[in-house]
Design brief:
mainly alpha, 6 helices
Length: 256
């Protein structure tokens, strides 16, 4: 192991953690893509698989530039100890990656359930990667390694976009699981809620009809009252006219 500054040793350690996770996710994403029937979801997974492979290459390149070796944990100490740890870590990572795909194929009770479980796992992986690259970015800034900081920031943003996609995807997949596995009568309150809505609608209709009848009755009553007042006024007018005529005739006889 070459003589490397302490700051670079720590950066190489963190970058190797990120590299190991990227290589592990390549296998998992390939398995998930093979299982995914939803076209938009599948395309996004394929895109992220390409991003993941690019991330691994970029991180491996940066590790070499810092004097380390990808998959090497690069802990300080005698070469024999370092080599032993390196081999153990490499074997463990390959084993996890090889087992993850087949395990994911077996999960869930139905197709939609498997997709949902995959999405939840992917979201957890993105959270881990975001945390890893955030740590790398800030450590690089602290030790003045601008290139490593920029690399970590760029990759972190890719992971955050994938995280946001999965966060939107999970509610849709959950709805698909409910539709596939739960009878319609047991979703959204079932028939009881629909019956309640029908009753409520019927009550509103009856109330509206009753209001209309009451309004019509009041209108009719008002019309009758108006007619009665009009008749009474006409009667008073005729009575007044007759009285005036009688007084006029009386006055004429008196002059005669």
């Amino acid at each position: 192991m070459p003589d490397i500054k302490a700051k670079d040793v720590k950066l190489i350690q963190y970058l190797n953690e990120a590299y190991g996770k990227e290589k592990q996710l390549e296998t998992a994403l390939e398995a998930h893509i093979a299982m995914t029937t939803r076209a938009p979801y599948r395309r996004r997974l394929e895109q992220h698989l390409r991003e993941t492979k690019a991330h691994a290459r970029d991180v491996e390149r940066r590790i070499k530039q810092l004097g380390g070796k990808a998959t090497d944990v690069n802990v300080p100490g005698p070469d024999a100890v370092t080599e032993g740890i390196t081999r153990a870590v490499a074997v463990a990572r390959r084993s996890v990656a090889a087992l993850q795909g087949p395990v994911h194929v077996l999960r869930g009770t139905g197709e939609q359930e498997r997709l949902l479980k995959n999405a939840k796992t992917e979201l957890q992986d993105e959270a881990e990667e975001i945390a890893t690259y955030t740590a790398i970015e800030h450590l690089a800034k602290i030790v003045g390694d601008r290139e490593t900081a920029q690399l970590a920031k760029r990759i972190r943003r890719d992971e955050e976009r994938m995280r946001d996609f999965l966060t939107r995807q999970i509610p849709q997949l959950t709805k698909a699981v409910a539709t596939e596995e739960i009878p319609a009568a047991e979703r959204n309150g079932g028939r009881r809620r629909r019956t309640t809505r029908r009753k409520s609608t019927g009550s509103r209709r009856r109330s509206t009809s009753s209001s209309k009848r009451s309004g019509t009755a009041r209108s009719r009553s008002g019309s009758r009252s108006s007619t009665s007042r009009s008749r009474a006024s006409s009667s008073r007018s005729r009575s007044g006219s007759r009285s005036s005529s009688s007084r006029a005739r009386s006055g004429a006889r008196s002059k005669s």
